[in-house]
Amino acid sequence: MGIISILISVLSFLMSAFSLASTYYEKHIKTKYYLRWVSQLSTGPNRSQLTISLLISNMSSRPSTITNILLKNQNEYVESTWCPVILLKSGQKTCYSDCTPLNVPSRSAKEFIIVFQYLQGFKLEDTITFSFIIDEREIKKTLPVKLILDGNQAAMAMNIRLT
Questions:
Q1: pLDDT digit of tens for each residue in the chain (163 aa)?
Q2: CA 103 from chain center: how many Å?
């Protein structure tokens, strides 16, 4: 009889230890960022606007809030727009860019279209460096540029967002 109660106690301890480790792991899964496409538009001499499609994956058990996104331009960081920018108008519908803060629920992924305006001398390269302020922590990420869209292609991609 004494051996059975000891076995039950050991099993319950092992199960609670496993549950504690699993909960800790799920709570601390890192947010992942994917750069789907970029589009650069010249807005004047030596000035441009960069529009990016960003897929943010949050497989953690708690939601994430991105309070700021900064783009590395030469030796400084430039903030994304603080208010929505009209990207495309099609009939009665209008496509706006997203602006911070961005909320990503737990165990989900969301796509955001972010705009960086008034960039001085920005050159689009194979990688882009961003600084994300997420849940009050700064995370610097260098993401590969896989797809560069011209103006018409970007308009088609945003038109899909309207439907």
A1: 678 888 888 889 889 988 888 877 777 788 899 999 999 988 888 888 999 999 999 988 889 899 999 999 888 899 998 888 888 777 778 888 898 899 999 989 999 999 999 898 888 889 999 999 988 889 999 999 999 998 888 888 888 877 6
A2: 9
Structure tokens at 75: 């030796």
Contact between 64 and 31 (Cβ < 8 Å)? yes
H-type alpha helices, the chain: 2-27, 151-162
Q: Number of helices (H) and strands (E) in the chain: give both, helices first.
A: 2, 10
Alpha-carbon distances, residue 75 vs 9, 122, 125 (angstroms): 60, 11, 15
